[in-house]
Design a protein that fits this description.
Largest sheet of chain B: 6 strands, parallel
Strand order of the largest sheet of chain A: 2-1-3-4-6-5
Structural class of chain A: alpha/beta
Low-confidence stretches of chain B: none
Oligomer: heterodimer
Order of helices and strands of chain B: HEHEHEHHEEEHEHEH
Radius of gyration of chain A: 14 Å
Radius of gyration of chain B: 16 Å
Low-confidence stretches of chain A: none
Structural class of chain B: alpha/beta
Distance between the termini of chain A: 14 Å
Number of strands of chain A: 6
Order of helices and strands of chain A: HEHEHEHHEHEHE
Mean pLDDT of chain B: 96
Mean pLDDT of chain A: 96
Chain lengths: 162, 199
């Protein structure tokens, strides 16, 4: 979909300071480019729920973090993102990998396709589905708009394999 | 040697905290912190919370403000809900993060039911060893205090140690104590803390 260099450039343009992440096979390979980009720091956490709380602390401390996880980690994150995004109203943006969206050969009948978008709707996260590299500027504009409005937002990145 | 109550454990930190320190409290520790007097502008009274995430919020604050001491007052039940955060903390090595674990072996705010880490909650009747665990995952400095006298004597060294620091306090549980009460809207308190830390 995108290269790590493209994602690092996009995040730099948005003023992101920290990317808090658990990798998957699509967003994980972006980590090295993010970690080495000037002004960006990659924070690896053990579980996705942690990511929202660490990002919340970073924001309280004056930084501008982003969470980068797979949709499976979104499912795990419920209580954490509820607390950060809605109790404390801390506007943390996210990039979320959408497992199996482009190719179900590896996991036929993957229920990520059933639950990901309803869960995002339930948690009131304004997401933009990205299914093609041509949508790079749309992804950037969506995250920028969410940051400007201080509302929870995500780029939902269609993935081709587990 | 006398048993250490949560109120006494927390009050030692209350007296030792520096004016520039961020202090994060949650669950029973938040209740006791609130009872000790007005909140400081750099207190993060983590109520409402997500289960077990005070350590992670504290890590984020420590990474955001690397020269500032950040003290997290956590309970063992909360710690067990986010045990991986201990590894995340030591992976990032915040030099001024102090994690104070008040271990009463119980989920106190829900009536002091035993946690799975304490003899009453384990089939074998054993207990987990927090100090060994903290050392095993790589905390730079690890302390244990079982009574008020030694905690009072040791708090300055623990707070000044190069972090990340882990302090284990063996405390008593009070089944009737209840949970903390929010001192006001969380979004307003969060923004006030962010503003205070930007000055």
């Amino acid at each position: 979909m995108f290269t790590g260099t493209q994602i690092a450039a996009l995040l730099t343009r948005l003023g992101i300071t920290h990317v808090v992440t658990v990798p998957d096979s699509t967003v994980g390979p972006w980590g090295d480019a993010i970690a080495t980009a000037p002004g960006l720091r990659l924070v690896r956490v053990c579980r996705e729920g942690e990511a929202w709380a660490v990002a919340g602390g970073l924001w309280l401390g004056g930084q501008r973090p982003l969470v980068m996880i797979q949709c499976t980690g979104l499912f795990e994150s419920g209580d954490a993102l509820r607390n950060v995004l809605h109790d404390w109203k801390i506007p943390i943006p996210a990039i979320i990998g959408y497992r199996s969206y482009l190719n179900q050969n590896f996991l036929p009948g993957d229920t990520c396709l059933v639950f990901t978008e309803p869960v995002l709707d339930t948690w009131r996260i304004d997401y933009k589905l990205i299914t093609s590299p041509d949508q790079y500027e749309e992804l950037s504009a969506h995250l920028e708009a969410c940051l400007a409005a201080e509302r929870p937002g995500a780029g939902l990145i269609a993935e081709g394999r587990a | 040697m006398s048993a250490l109550s949560l109120r006494d454990a927390v009050s030692v930190v209350h007296q030792a905290r520096g004016d520039a320190d961020v202090v994060i409290t949650t669950m029973g520790a938040a209740r006791e912190w609130q009872a000790l007097g007005p909140l400081h502008p750099l207190d993060l009274f983590f109520v409402p919370s997500a289960m077990g995430h005070a350590t992670s919020v504290g890590l984020g604050l420590a990474l955001a403000q690397p020269e500032r001491r950040v003290v997290v007052l956590n309970g063992d039940g909360s710690m067990l809900m986010n045990l991986g955060s201990l590894v995340t903390i030591t992976a990032t090595r915040p030099a001024h993060l102090v994690l104070v674990l008040c271990d009463n072996g119980a989920y106190e705010v829900t009536g002091a039911q035993p946690t799975p880490g304490t003899p009453a909650g384990r089939a074998g009747g054993d207990s987990i060893d927090w100090v060994t665990l903290a050392r095993a995952v790589g905390f730079s400095a690890v302390f244990r205090f079982d009574d008020l006298e030694t905690w009072r004597l040791g708090v300055a060294a623990a707070m000044a140690a190069r972090g990340p620091v882990f302090v284990h306090l063996k405390t008593t549980a009070d089944a009737a104590a209840g949970g903390p009460r929010s001192p006001g809207p969380a979004p307003d308190r969060g923004r006030a803390l962010r503003a205070a830390l930007s000055r």
